[in-house]
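call fold(seq) -> tokens
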Amino acid sequence: MSQILFVGDSSTWSERAVESLRAAFDDVDVVTWDHGAGAKPDIPVRPREWIFSFKSDLLLPHRVIASASRGAVNFHPAPPEYRGIGGYHYAIANGDDSFGATCHLMDDLIDHGAILQVTRFAIGPTDTPATLREKSAQASLQLLERFLERVVAGGGQLSSCGATWGPTLYTRAMLQRWLAQGAAGAPALLSTAGK
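ret:
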């Protein structure tokens, strides 16, 4: 039986997350997939202790999420006001003064489960969507490492920190339309929550 399932993308940040998991656990199954990279991998359902999803576009079915006896946890590279994808772009366009990453329990909806922890960092005057992508990946990795420290120390209590998700789920189609318009003229897509 595999104790841990890790689902991530092909970035170096996911590789570093796997290194952290393998330092904490003896048995880690790794699944990586990037949007547009072909067929989605089939993840067998089997008893697991934890599932960790990290910067992943792969949506896990309920039967896989439910297979984790201690919990299925996602590390989302954006703060809670930016569910889904594209938050880097929207935060810059909105003139937000901070961005971040969110650790939350997974449920059947996208970026929707109880939020366990949020970390934020300042957006600087020279930041771009690309620099926010890197900074939020680093913040996501730090959240994962802090979570692992608690688990290894015998903690890992999965309780909400009280933060709530924004009302809008930003989809790939929304982002593509917005970018096609030159990132202008689509203010209805831009969340101003958390400013």
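Residues 185-195 have pLDDT under 50 and may be disordered.
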